[in-house]
Amino acid sequence: xxxxxxxxxxxxxxxxxxxxxxxxxxxxxxxxxxxxxxxxxxxxxxxxxxxxxxxxxxxxxxxxxxxxxxxxxxxxxxxxxxxxxxxxxxxxxxxxxxxxxxxxxxxxxxxxxxxxxxxxxxxxxxxxxxxxxxxxxxxxxxxxxxxxxxxxxxxxxxxxxxxxxxxxxxxxxxxxxxxxxxxxxxxxxxxxxxxxxxxxxxxxxxxxxxxxxxxxxxxxxxxxxxxxxxxxxxxxxxxxxxxxxxxxxxxxxxxxxxxxxxxxxxxxxxxxxxxxxxxxxxxxxxxxxxxxxxxxxxxxxxxxxxxxxxxxxxxxxxxxxxxxxxxxxxxxxxxxxxxxxxxxxxxxxxxxxxxxxxxxxxxxxxxxxxxxxxxxxxxxxxxxxxxxxxxxxxxxxxxxxxxxxxxxxxxxxxxxxxxxxxxxxxxxxxxxxxxxxxxxx
Length: 441
Ligand code: XUL
Ligand code: CO
Known about the structure:
By secondary structure, the chain is α/β, with parallel strands linked by helices. The protein contains 16 helices and twelve strands. An eight-stranded parallel barrel has the order 3-4-5-6-8-10-11-12, surrounded by four helices. The chain has a two-stranded antiparallel ribbon with strand order 1-2. Strands 7-9 form a two-stranded antiparallel sheet. α10 packs parallel to α11 (319-331). Cobalt (II) ion binds next to loops.
């Protein structure tokens, strides 16, 4: 039964590139076969609950701009009734869009109660409600997560808090969220260290805080195995915001952290485009590095404004950027448990219900175009051919002997003199390669 929130809008369909219907897919045909796989199974789109249904449109200079029937009225508190109304509209939107997945934090889906036990009961109750909706609509859970950053108890961090009671509270919260994620068949569990960092070193012991964070993550991994959760545990790197410095700065930093605590085979990364940019990298850099280190998991597909310098969480709309990103995803073998989560929010002036739909439709179309361009580049060996050629010298027996540790520094030096080794510089052909990419996008 329709909630009426979106008026009489019909489920959004693929109408092809010539359609001028603002609420139709032009490039995302879920059934289109790309490299032997359906487009829906390549992209594995997910809508996030928090930005689309919980965020009121505020910024540091002003509060709520959106009016939603499930928001508490001024002066009255949030209720489970409203939470269920929100869920009705959320699942209606997932169905209208035809996305296979959604994602949520505990705080997005139920109002917090006065005690931990009551908050947990509310989460369980909403999970029951979700379970029915998921059965009715066929929408699945890409990942669940805990909000360990909004409540004031977490202002100095969750796992990295100087107060062990906060650590314990956060651990209990993650346990509850993992239980619910498992129950709902979630394919991953995400940890974003929203306030796992510091504002000033004057009150911070970094070594101690990293050890706390390592212990916390080990507890999570142990618990995952104990309850038989088959999903992937993912860390979402971000360099700063809300804290001045966050410990999960970027993919390289997270990998170092995982290695230090012996978790590099247990935990992968959820890479967000905007976070990559905040860290001074490109999205494709972070994706390529995660793949090279064997920790690529999933993506949050939302960009920042390139001028503002903070995390604006906008829907993607740049096809060449998407093509390079999905090129890396395809090189990594595509998603297994991961997917494309839109951790993206409307601009605060986009008030209308159909703005929510249009934003997702445009983002999905942009990703579909990018992925298809990436697949064509891959199938044509447009970039991999020149790349192979660039490293071809390493296929020789002597080069392989050096690489595998069979030659000492002295032996290498001896050969350089004896064989008069005299390397000839070769062009990196960057512009030619950039021109090739532009042929595909
Ligand atoms: C914040 C962010 C989070 C995580 C989930 O920048 O990206 O929404 O994706 O906690
Ligand atoms: Co994110």
